[in-house]
Amino acid sequence: MPPVKPARRAKSARNPRKRAWPRGVKTAIRFGLPAAMTGAILGAGAWLAVSGEGARLVAKAGAEALSFSARAGLRVDNVLVTGRKRVARRAVRVALQARRGMPIVAFDPHAAKARLEKLTWVRAASVERRLPDTIVIRIFERRPLALWQLKGRLALIDVDGKVITRWKLSRYGRLPLVVGAGAPKHAAAIIRTLRAHPRLNARMQALVRVSARRWDVKFKNGIIARLPEKDAARAMATLDRLVQRERLLDRGVVVIDLRFKDRLVVRTTARPKAAGTKSKERRPKRLTRPSKDT
């Protein structure tokens, strides 16, 4: 009978158990290493910020990116402007701040729009950046409405009552003249009312704002028509019928007072005086209102 061989040891006995790290060392590694890395990053960032090196590196990287985009075809080659009639071309170019060949991604359309709308002739503007190479601008100009006179100074105003300019006003001499404080704000409404009556509009010299409440219409022959504070359109229609029926603006009239609903007051000039006699001014004359069908 063969001899019995001794049993082999288990394989696990060949791999002795690894020695464990001390608990303090593991805790230090777990929390200390991230803290050290965070501190290093913050320290590097602080150094870059204090030394200015970070800003320089960022600016350099941005400039290189913009330059690369321009070389790739993203550059300003076309600037299309529509709606410009009175705004100076140079003023638009200065406000736009875009030059041919610059990286189009460096162009700020919102800032350009804000600068354009500060120009006196520009009421509104839209600015669009169309990649790869085009900037499109649309300008909405102010519409001249009238010349405004205050304390001897003239200014050109638009339909919103905004002052456009005080220079080179001779080319706008055919526009209506409005006079007085607060006149620009209400000018559009009264001018629109007056233009509905061509006979009166053709003979009007100025529209005078009185006490910031109502209007006087001064005609070229010196006659003044006093309009009411409310319902000036009705009073203007009444005056137009009187001019058509009685030729009121061609008679010896100084003032036509239309401020009252129940009566019309007309002040006339004095009669021509004879030799050796004193002239007397006529009292204001009341006229009945013409009916609507006359």
Written description of the protein model:
With 294 residues, the chain is an alpha/beta fold. It has two domains: 78-141, membrane protein fhac (Ubiquitin-like (UB roll), Roll), CATH 3.10.20; 144-287, 3-Layer(aba) Sandwich (Rossmann fold), CATH 3.40.50.11690. Helix content is 33%, strand content 24%. The protein contains seven helices and 13 strands. The strands form two sheets. It has a ten-stranded mixed β-sheet with strand order 6-5-4-7-8-9-10-11-12-13. A three-stranded mixed β-sheet has the order 1-3-2. Helix 3 packs antiparallel against helix 4 (109-116). The longest helix has 29 residues, at 23-51. It is elongated. The chain starts with 22 loop residues before the first helix and ends in a 7-residue tail after the last strand.
Brief overview, please?
33% of the residues lie in helices and 24% in strands. With 294 residues, the protein is α/β, with parallel strands linked by helices.
Top keywords for this entry?
294 residues, alpha/beta, Rossmann fold, 2 domains, ten-stranded mixed sheet, 33% helix, 24% strand
Question: What does the secondary structure layout of this molecule look like, with pairings?
Answer:
Elements: H1 23-51, H2 53-71, E1 78-82, H3 89-96, H4 109-116, E2 122-130, E3 134-141, E4 144-150, E5 153-158, E6 163-165, E7 177-179, H5 183-195, H6 198-203, E8 204-210, E9 214-219, E10 224-226, H7 232-246, E11 253-257, E12 264-268, E13 285-287
Parallel strand pairs: 1-3, 4-7, 7-8, 10-11
Antiparallel strand pairs: 2-3, 4-5, 5-6, 8-9, 9-10, 11-12, 12-13
Helix pairs in contact: 3-4
